[in-house]
Amino acid sequence: MSIKSLNQAKKDNINLSRRSFMVGTVNTSLLMAFGASAIPSVLSAKEALSSKTFSPNVWFEMDTAGNVVVNIAKAEMGQHVGTAIARILADELECDWDKVSIVHVDTDPKWGYMVTGGSWSIFQTYKPMSQAGAAGRQVLINAGATLLGVDPSSCKAQQGFIVSGNQKISYGDIVAKGNVDKTYSADELGALAIKPGNKRHLIGIGNDYKALDIPPKTNGSAVYGIDVEVENMLYARPILPPTRYGSTVTNVDDSQAKSLPGYKGFKILTDPSGTIEGWVAVLASDYPTAIKAVDKIKVSYNAGKTVNISEADIQKEGERICRDRSEGTLFVDEGNITQAQKNAASSIEAMYTTATASHFQLEPLNAIAEFKEGKWHIHTGNQWQSLTLPTVAKAAEVPEADVVIHQYYLGGGFGRRLFGDWIIPALLTAKAAGQPVKLLFMRPDDTMFDQPRSASTSLFNASFDGSGKFTGMEHALAAGWPTLAMAPGFMPDGVDGKGKVDPFSASGADHWYTMEHHRARVINNKVAQNTFTPGWLRSVGQGWIVWGLESFIDEIAHETKQNPVDFRLAMLDGKGKQAGKAPESVGGAKRLANTLEILKKKTADVTLGDNEGIGYSVTAGQERTMPAWIATAAHVHVDKRSGKITLKKLWVVADAGIVVHPDGAMAQMEGSLLWGTSLALFEQNEIKDGYVSKKNLHTYLPLRMNDVPEMDIEFVESDEFPVGLGEPGVIGVAPAVGNAVFDAVGVRLRHLPMLASHVTDALKV
Predict the structure, then answer these.
(1) DSSP 569
(2) Distance (Å, whole) CA 172 – CA 201
(3) What is the C-alpha separation between 746 and 638, in angstroms, rounded?
(4) Per CATH, the architecture of 232-305+365-440 is what?
């Protein structure tokens, strides 16, 4: 799929383009569904729903008790996405929230394009689910009015009843007694009015109800991918080759493993999809035996070319390509930066870098592959089923229609479970073994096969005229690109037409500041790209791009002797393209400025002790086409003797439009701020000998409880279109902390994570 078609899919989700909507009573249920095309006059909605002639995706159904089941085509990994989507629907439908339940669906094509990432879920589903609920409510009012013997204009929907004066009838009775048969064309559906944000009672700030996934998660009934078992299955554990790419197996000696009861041998895997190379899978009747057997098997290889690559090699290449203006392609090119630099009376330059970082999601990778009744059935938790399924089919050498991915809860995703490459060795092992296989990764296996966030490099240059006024900025940014590795069809052309761009490794460089001259050049770091599969890690490119950008904005402010907050506010004027557009970015940069104004007032009276400072940042992640306006402030203390940075408090003001599920939004923001803190001050996993060097959590050190800061989070009340909140909170933490360190002790840190040794080294200069 091209980037144009990806954007079109997102737009279609919002606008219901080319889809009709059917509502009909079938047997003892009221089914409501989007159809793939207009219903011909020879079929009623009831007939189409009953016969499934058009394979409609039944988004929700209601039974004679008024219970509503909402089908969710998104992955649940702790963010309560099903609850949020169901709330949108239930609010418009005016059903009883206590009678709403959710079901996560498999990869049947009728559900359409399936992806849970990029903080897109609410943004994409808000309008279609609202309009579906509005259509359902209208149909129920009409049917209820008929049963009550009154005019529909006298009726209203309320808490699962149609009410007219002193009469009322329940939704369940309407389903049982009514004869609903209604088709809405796409135009009719689009014309349906949906409630403004201030008329909602199930969504929005101040409206809080239970998350539907919490009971099963707390009573133990929730099923995660790692919980699933099927009959007659074997267990498998992989043995990973010495490099991610290019290694081949020359010999396997399993003589010591054969003495283990339950050991069932090994398989050398050959992958028609080219996803894995040089893999061996060990089989056993139980998982403990599979674990032990791996330690007893000796595999010999011809190692791939990247076997000696180190983090230093990646960083060295990053600096080289950023300094070479012939490398890469332009993502932003406004004004004339070349002329601005020629005319400049002075300039400043800075290079910002980040270390390789790993996902370390709680649930290690796992999948069951079973061939049954002519189809491959995959049991796992996956974020981007529509991206994964074609590659799985290629590996199995079957049509896509012969692969079904069954969806389960994810024990954490954070981007690692977007492209389900771990399914491939499970399927290939099951195919070679001739029976179902459950492949589980031990934590070191999981970490070695991770798709880490690539080490990155950002080079900035700012120009100033004779009066010291800032005139323009050049920005070069380089890293390994996840989209190039896993979804190259999504990459658009650069603005100069000289190459493709990974939009997820460039977003954030197209900021909301008004600058007369601004150029951003993006470059793929081929050393990183060839060493491992660069991954989408929570906040994706913005996490490292905006770290450099917002730190350098502070540097420019100090160079021009301006207050960093006021300097930002002056550039957030909402002029030109920074004005934003409907529906997703109404207000543009001025809404971002508003969050910063609120934050400025909240932090105005903070008392700072010795070696303490406050730093600020503004961000608009995830993308310009779906911005969440966020201002962040960080209060730090720096121990000048040891170099330890203590993050005492974070303040965040966020404008994300209508907040659909306030409790979930707050949890998302809290989690993302802590993730941002972890990346800012702790997390790094340097590449050594072609792999990440830290394989488990006794050496990889994310944020610990005793370093959790106080957090003050405020959501701006808004009736604007809702946008995502899963990732944007991560982005602003690191630059706010870095700017706070400068405010505290006058040293500028330019590498993530910011370590005590970086502080002491900088203080010596």
Answers:
(1) H
(2) 21
(3) 11
(4) 2-Layer Sandwich (3.30)
Instruction: Name the strand (E) or helix (H) holding 457.
Output: strand 456-464
- pLDDT > 50? residue 39: no
Q: Which amino acid is at 659?
A: V
The dihedral over CA atoms of 504, 634, 459, 328, expressed in degrees to the nearest 10, equals 0
Domains 3-219 and 312-355+452-764 share a fold: yes
Give the pLDDT band (50/70/90) at residue 335. very high
Residues with Cβ within 8 Å of residue 217, at least 6 apart in sequence = 409
Reported as a pLDDT band with limits 50, 70 and 90, residue 57 is low
105, 121, 114: which is closest to 386 by C-alpha?
Answer: 114
Contact 227, 410 (CB under 8 A): no
Three-class DSSP category at 721: coil
Give residue 215's pLDDT band: very low, low, confident or very high (50, 70, 90).
Answer: confident
The string of pLDDT tens digits covering residues 659-674 is 988 888 899 999 999 9
Cα–Cα nearest to 492, from 484, 502, 482, 483: 502
Integer-rounded Cα radius of gyration of the chain: 27
* pLDDT band at residue 60 under the 50/70/90 scheme: confident
DSSP letters of 13-47? HHH-TT-EEEEEEETTEEEEEEESSPPPTTS-HHH
Pairing verdict, β 687-688 and 691-692: antiparallel
DSSP E strand boundaries for 108-185:
156-158, 161-164, 167-170, 181-184
| 3-class secondary structure, 439 | strand
Q: Using a cut of 0.70, tell me whether the model's pTM lies above it.
A: yes
Say which range, 420-429, 654-663, 675-684, has the weakest mean pLDDT: 654-663
Helix (H, G, I), strand (E, B) or coil at 609: coil
Q: 420 near 388, Cβ under 8 Å? A: yes
pLDDT digits (tens, 9 = 90+) for 413-446: 999 999 999 999 999 999 999 999 999 999 999 9
pLDDT band at 523 (very low <50, low <70, confident <90, very high): very high
Q: What are phi and psi of 14, to 5 degrees?
A: -75, -40
Q: Any idea how long the chain is? A: 765
- Map 218-266 to HEC letters: HHCCCCEHHHCCCCCCEEEEEECCCCCCCCEEEEEECCCHHHCCCEEEE
In the block, which residue shows the tokens 């965040």?
A: 652
Tokens of 385: 């089923």
As a whole number of angstroms, the distance between CA 317 and CA 301 comes to 28
pLDDT at 105: 79
CA pair distance 520, 542, nearest whole angstrom: 14
pLDDT value for 33: 81
Residue 677 in this model has a pLDDT that exceeds 50: yes
pLDDT at site 58 = 58
Residue type present at position 703 = L
Contact 212, 83 (CB under 8 A): yes
| CA–CA dist 442, 290 (Å, integer) | 10
Q: Where are the domains of the chain?
A: 3-219, 232-305+365-440, 312-355+452-764
Strand partners, 653: 631, 714
Query: Which class would CATH give 3-219?
Result: alpha beta
Q: Chain-wide mean pLDDT for the chain?
A: 91
Query: Which amino acid, one-letter code, is at 285?
Result: S
Q: What does DSSP assign to residue 74?
A: S
pLDDT of residue 670: 97
Cβ atoms of 234 and 264 within 8 Å: the answer is yes
Question: For the ranges 37-51, 619-633, 674-688, which has the lowest average pLDDT?
Answer: 37-51
- Lateral strand order in the sheet of 161-164: 156-158, 161-164, 167-170
d(CA 421, CA 469): 50
CATH 3.40.50.1100 assigned to 312-355+452-764: no
CA-closest candidate to residue 356, choices 457, 441, 275, 445: 457
